[in-house]
Specification:
- By secondary structure, the chain is an alpha+beta fold.
- The protein has twelve helices and twelve strands.
- The strands form five sheets. It has a three-stranded antiparallel sheet with strand order 2-1-10. The chain has a three-stranded antiparallel sheet with strand order 3-6-7. A two-stranded antiparallel ribbon has the order 4-5.
- A hairpin with a 5-residue loop joins strand 11 and strand 12.
- Mean pLDDT is 80; it is low at 1-14 and 260-306.
Amino acid sequence: MALTPTTGNIKAPVKATNKNESVSAYLNGKIGSALVANAISDKAKASRFVTSLITLCSMNPDLQECDRATLVSAALNAETLGLPLNNQMGFGYVLPYKDKKNNRTVAQFQVGWRGIIQLMIRSGQMKKIHVIEVRAGELVRFNPILNDFEFAYLSNEEERAKAPVIGYYCFFETTNGYVQELYWTKEKMELHAKTYSPGYVADLKKGTDFTFWSKDFDGMAKKTMLKQISKFAPMSVDLVKAIESDQAVINEDGTYNYIDGNDNEDIVEAATKVDENGVVIEAETDSVKEEVPPKKGDDLADELNK
């Protein structure tokens, strides 16, 4: 079974869920063990992966309701990218979603903004990389046509913490001296979130905070800035894979299914509500794939075509 996902929003045949089989039993069974062995040749590493995934599921019981193939594939995606599934570190996540259309719960892989930075650093071509929110009083000038801006950081941290966020800045410098900078206003980021996250729009209408955009807008904004600026960065296989598989349900044959926003909550609701660190709080309705506009599924292709 090939684990390297093919690109595109491929609608693979939906199989009956196997949630009645324990995660441990699935991992030690024919299909689960083949998935793991195909991705991790080292037996010691494979054993550690199995242990860590079982531990992850014990910490988040909702993951135990997921279709086993999507659960293992999502976790293996993080493993092969070298992104530990530690919510406190914020590199990558495996989150459960209820697929009402197919009457099953599936696991979705999500890369964190810190994970994107890690993958960009690993290219070996990065000298500096940074992303930060810009607060009121820090923007000196901004010319979006010339991509020219100047900032003055508020040195008083207490004063800065009280100042509202007005935008986001991201930059990197490569080892050969190439520099790329990007600044988005808060208004532009809001428009982006509303365009690519039907779940966030639903939150705004209902006054709820179930989506990552609602719970941690700044964190999602930083991730967006890094994904945007990565178009100009040296691309590695892992970075492309992380962006492409972000918020995808990965089937056991390696194909991707993106949770589409066409029918919003009629199709998908999240099984778990999490805080800004990805720590489970309670079961609630969540967003659909925020980086892919409705009726478009290939995240990488859509990003490159914007």
